[in-house]
């Protein structure tokens, strides 16, 4: 008989993460609210898609920062799922330590926490066997010692794993497991967590790492969400997955070349256009100003931050511009640079429209080599 189950697979939500890097407490608090909004969205998705289960593959919350009221709130969210089971494993940020909320809190009946002491749960109604490999400590360099799984072919078998899948050339001391070891256990699906960037490259082997449903920093670019997975098992096994975006905000790091800017008005206009394109009222931006500045123009990062504060949720500016050269004054010098500028200017004056920009670039490369001793060809 063919069996079919569907579930939402998420991981690495990191509820109550401090977000201290944002620098302002009101922004950090807002980001913690974002995590809760994203979590609510995940709960709504389970109901909306009428999924059979919710799987949380580790790092649901940050043990070091999480408050009791957040834990109570999480449990209330789980209650919204009624009888639908929630399967959780502890990750390296919410490990199964002595004072873990997974031990001390009285969770709703539909919540099943798989630990090294009790690593499995069998759902009789839907004939699904769950097995978890999580964390007993904040740092764990080998897999926890626990009873082996009981994978039976007549059931649907799902493994939750928080850690690093060891592939060639990768070393990571967080629960490292050989890919062959894990797939050799014979599960129909592996709900992985730990890395915050989504990865469905191993879905052919039944493995997905969904990443963080809400990005936590500038190293977590790209899209963030959860997976809706459907498994159908009869004579053969069929797997289907759909990525669903859940994030409230995105992180962007942008370079803006302001070499053509001649006034503060031009500069603010150029930046405004970029902020608009990246929806700065919502997203979190880091802007790197580049280019060779016009002679008498200077960048005031503090001014820019004040000027754009109200147009942005959070924006940082860094000034990586280079000073311009006073070509007029240089061409009069009796130095190597002076002769070079004079010759190049003559050539530029006589060049056609196509050749001109190339020669101008060559002029600046030459000056850079003379004055700074090195070239930044990426310009
Ligand atoms: Mn994590």
Automatic annotation (TrEMBL):
Gene3D superfamilies: 3.60.21.10. This is Metallophosphoesterase. PANTHER family: COMPONENT OF ATP-DEPENDENT DSDNA EXONUCLEASE (PTHR30337), PHOSPHOESTERASE (PTHR30337:SF7). GO terms for molecular function: hydrolase activity. Keywords: Hydrolase. It comes from the Bacteria. InterPro entries: Calcineurin-like_PHP, DNA_Repair-Maintenance_Comp, Metallo-depent_PP-like, Mre11_N. Residues 7-197 form the Calcineurin-like phosphoesterase domain. The keyword Hydrolase applies.
